Amino acid sequence: MTQLHTDRLTLRRWRDSDLEPWAAMNADPEVRRHLGGPLTREQSDASVARFEADWDRRGYGWWALAVRDTGEFIGFAGLDQVDEGMPFTGVETGWRLARPAWGHGYATEAARTVLAHGFGTLGLPEILAVTTAGNLRSQAVMRRIGMTRDPAGDFDDPSAPEGPLRANVLFRISRGDARRQ
After folding, report:
1. 63-89 as b/e, with b when 16 or more CB fall inside 10 Å?
2. DSSP states of 61-83 as a string?
3. Is the model's pTM score more than 0.85?
4. Cα angle, residue 12 at apex, residues 141 and 54 outer, rounded to 5°
5. Among 19, 57, 76, 129, which one is least packed by beta carbons within 10 Å?
6. Are strands 155-156 and 167-174 parallel, antiparallel or unpaired?
7. What is the pLDDT of residues 110-167, one digit of tens each?
């Protein structure tokens, strides 16, 4: 399945027309505040190439996120294998939106749809989410979609320098817990 729809959003595979707004998002220091700083256009474009290669290899990954009525690209949401070297394994969900799309409930709406796909279509037993300890907005989305913080899983990201990006928190949701919502 390459597309998912909500009342307001389309989650779809990436298009060449997404590269410019994606690069603009990744150049925004506020969007990248909890992610290690802005990316160059080349780094941003390379990330989309990786996303698409992952899709082709696994059959799931990071969808481009667009407003359903207008087709406007506003970010991404999806599922990914936890990076090697982390103190846990599994599949994680995540999202990133352009600043004008903040505060409209889009991240929560997309994340709920991604969870439903992960549990219903992919049959995943559990989905994780990770963010920096200071990223309270993402943690709020995690709670809204029914995820629970696992303090025993909190960790210092070995790839992050000393500072506010190092301490990370782990959230989890099982297929059974998602069904009860």
Report:
1. bbbbeeeeeebbbbbbbbeeeeebeee
2. -EEEEEETTT--EEEEEEEEEPP
3. yes
4. 90
5. 57
6. antiparallel
7. 999 999 999 999 999 999 999 999 999 999 999 999 999 999 999 998 888 788 888 9
Amino acid at 102: W
CA distance 80 to 51: 9
For β-strands 126-132 and 62-67, DSSP reports them as unpaired
At how many degrees (to 10) do helices 106-116 and 136-144 cross? 50
| Residue type, position 66, single letter | A
For residue 156, the SS3 value is strand
Element (H, E) at 20: helix 19-26
